[in-house]
Amino acid sequence: MNDSEELAPAVASILRSAEARGDPEGGPLSVDARSLPAALSRAETDGRVPVIAEVKPTSPTTDGTRDADPVELAERMVAGGAAALSVLSEPDHFGGSPENLRRVREAVDVPVLRKDFVVRESQLDTVAADVVLLIARFVGEDLGDLVAAAEERGFQPLVEVHDAAELERAVAAGAELIGVNNRDLAKLEVDLETFETVAPQAPDDVTLVAESGIGSPDDARRMVEAGADGLLVGSAIMDGVSESPSGGRGAESLETVTENTRRLTRARTQR
User: Fold this and answer.
1) pLDDT tens digits, residue range 98-142?
2) Which residues belong to any copy of the Indole-3-glycerol phosphate synthase domain (predicted)?
3) Which of 48, 49, 86, 127 fits as disulfide partner to 43, beta carbons 3.0 to 4.6 Å?
4) How many domains does the chain have?
5) For position 214, which CATH number holds?
6) C-alpha to C-alpha distance for 103 and 151, rounded to whole angstroms
């Protein structure tokens, strides 16, 4: 595992919390997963930008928390054209829970990603999901073992990387789904050029997901043109980030969540 001194303080705190979290009770899960690549491909065929919309109560980089029911939010995102969903199950810094994920997955028919910070195999058994996030920088040399353990349970592991070296590790670990995080976990700076730099170095048969910093239809088009098969979007949907130069925020409501999702999934036709 990478030294937490290389991480921003907020991220190091997340990692310490993940390491200290207790193991779930019971044995290994067995998951009948919905295919994320197939869902992203269907969205493409339908003319939609393949958005993975994130049910995100809060985060260290946002203000306040949201009390809206996760299932209602998820249903609104799907109504807006989301190809898949991401649900936070990390409780200490993001206000998520395994129960929220369980409820959402039961309510929708699209693939659901478990957004958490898994650092050891037993934590895979916390809750069933279709896709599970594995952050290369967090798990270090254990990445290959965790990818294999996730696949043995039926999960589709999405391995998150930030640079070419991490991409190489992910490919060597057998990852078929790779997310490129535009946010630098050391400085918390976001730069869409990160995906544009890393994506061309990925094998053609890998499904690539662009993560972080996608706030407008222009950003969505930019990431798709750079080779993204899917876009993981949280704040631009949950917070109603405006496209105006002032960066103002729209009124937060369930209808706003639908419209924000639709705005991104229809980015190809909005010039």
Assistant:
1) 999 999 999 999 999 999 999 999 999 999 999 999 999 999 999
2) 30-240
3) 48
4) 1
5) 3.20.20.70
6) 23
